[in-house]
Design brief:
This protein has 67 residues and is mainly α. The chain has three helices and no strands. It has one domain: Helix Hairpins, CATH 1.10.287.310.
Length: 67
């Protein structure tokens, strides 16, 4: 997903997405360890999505604190 798509989500949706991506990353790492992972680039993309979501959550924290 792109950052613009994440920006349209609410905080609750962002937290749910973060949990989903963390679970997905765990599963991808497990597949990598067992030799079942078909595309190793999925791990990189998942990490980037986690970083995007965390960045947006932090931006919202800063906005709330600035008020």
């Amino acid at each position: 997903m792109k950052a613009s798509e994440f920006r349209e989500m609410t905080l609750r949706e962002l937290n749910e997405k973060l949990a989903q991506y963390k679970t997905e990353l765990f599963n991808l790492r497990f597949q990598l360890a067992t030799g079942q992972l078909q595309n190793p680039m999925q791990i990189r993309e998942c990490k980037k999505n986690i970083a995007r979501v965390k960045t947006l959550l932090r931006e919202d924290e800063i906005k709330v604190a600035a008020r």
